[in-house]
Structures are given as structure tokens and as C-alpha cells.
């Protein structure tokens, strides 16, 4: 059951579900206006905030009332508006910022794809290309501002995942860790920081590597890792004691997902480990955010989130054997297997 609807009469609970999109629209608008950043130095009057955001003060007062009802801001005794801990991550420059995520995931282009979910269910194909005339990645390439926003959103979510691997598995016996599709290298940097004897290889598209080099250098681990340009459908570096695919497999339908895993399998020596970091759909009918994320993957890419058994099937199809799943205190699990 969706959080917040427990114990409500069915019609009231259903109304909550029907109007749930109102919340995401309000959060996105808060991000668009930069409200959290304008409140970073402390509470302000609605008039001051309206001047800063270029909005109509009486109308903004109504919007602040709505945001306060969501717990994102709060009014003090003088009627000034202040930022709450819940609203803090909507600031642009704070560690773990979710502002770009709010802007990208609730962007109008994504919303239009959601609206065509019924057709995606009829065909099993993504709705985004039908709505926009381009696949998701081609659309972002043709709209650089949205592409940059999506990249920033993924960077923010990568921060949430970055500490998952060292928290879930023992890296002390690993000599070389190869991060396939590792983006800027946030997870690799966290792994290297947690295991002083570890060396890393970041393998990703050539256009990604300059950003990765800058990030790894700033993190103080550039001297312990190599950067290699790859197409993970064609090849990945050999010689790793362990390989990690973080937030990669869920972007692809089964056939392509197996192809990526098979490429890793071919590069790995017997005894090498593979760690797949993903959200694993939980069994049963209880609420699980991954079950809704699965629908987003459908409309954007024709891809999917998966259950534990579905990940086992993918890995076995790619040539791997036994699979162990390590849950974490984040939404992500580490799915572990060994090359035999």
C-alpha cells in the first residue's frame, strides 16, 4: 500500500493516489524557482522571496502554504518562510543535492512519456520515442540543456549509491576493481578510499572520461586508478579481481542486459567477482518504490527493474553461476556472483 494511505477509507485513499502527481509538480516548481537556495541564509518574508524568484507575492504566499503542508518549508511566528530539513536537499550546491533530480525526473518531456504509459503496456515498447520522435538518449543529445540536467541528476543519485559497495562487501582482498560504466567514478572513489591497497580501473565511454579524471583527481585517488575508453557491448578491460556494474543493467531490456553481462564474463578470469548494484524489486504486494521505477524504465527505455530471481536468470544466461544478494540500508542491493 502506498505510504500515507494506510487506514484511510478506500475512496479517500484512492483520491490520494489520483492526486499524487500534484506533489511532484509542487516539488519541481520549488526547484525551478530555486526556493531552497533563496532560503539558504535563513527565513525570509514572502515579499522578499517573491522579489528574489520573480513571482507574484500573493500567489507565492499560496504556494508557500502548499509547500509548508508538504513539510518542505515552515512559517515562523512572524510569518516568514524558512527551509526545513526535508527541503534542504533541494538546494543546488549541498552534498547529496536532489534539485537536479527533481528537475529532470519530473521534466515535461518525461511527463509526456508517462502520459502514454497505456500504449507502452499494450506494445511492451517505450513510449518516449513515440511521443518525441527520438529515443531518450538521442533526445538528450538533441537538447543539450536537458541532457546536462539529466547528467546532473544522475550524479546526485550516484552520491547515494557511492558508499554501497564498501558497506556491503569486503574489498580488502581485492587487488584491482574494474568499474564498468562508472561515470564520474564516485563509487570507485569510495571503494578506493575504503581500501588503501586497492587499485581501480574506470571503464566508460570516451566522452565521459575527462569528467571522471577531474573527479578522481579531486577525490585524491587518481594516482591509484586507470581510465579506459570502452563500449561495454564490445569489450571491457581484463585483469580485474572484481568488476562492478552500478545502475547500468536496469537501463536495458533483457537481451542487451545479458550482452553486457556476457562481455564482463568474457573478460573475467576464473575466480573474479562481479558485483551488480541495482534496486531489487521485493516480492509480494507491499509498496516498493522500485515497482514504480520499473514503469519509468518502461516508458523511457523499454527497460526494467528486476526481482532477485530475474537477476539470477540474467546472470545465468550470461554464463555465471550462484548469485548472492546483499541488501543495504539504501534502496540499492549488491548482487554478487563469481566467474567459474
From TrEMBL:
The keyword Metal-binding appears for this protein: no
GO terms assigned for molecular function: O-methyltransferase activity; protein dimerization activity
Domain O-methyltransferase C-terminal: residue ranges: 114-320
Pfam families membership: Dimerisation, Methyltransf_2
Record: active site: 250
PROSITE patterns xrefs: SAM_OMT_II (PS51683)
GO biological process, one term: methylation
Methyltransferase in keyword set: yes
Protein known as: O-methyltransferase domain-containing protein
Source organism (scientific name): uncultured Thermomicrobiales bacterium
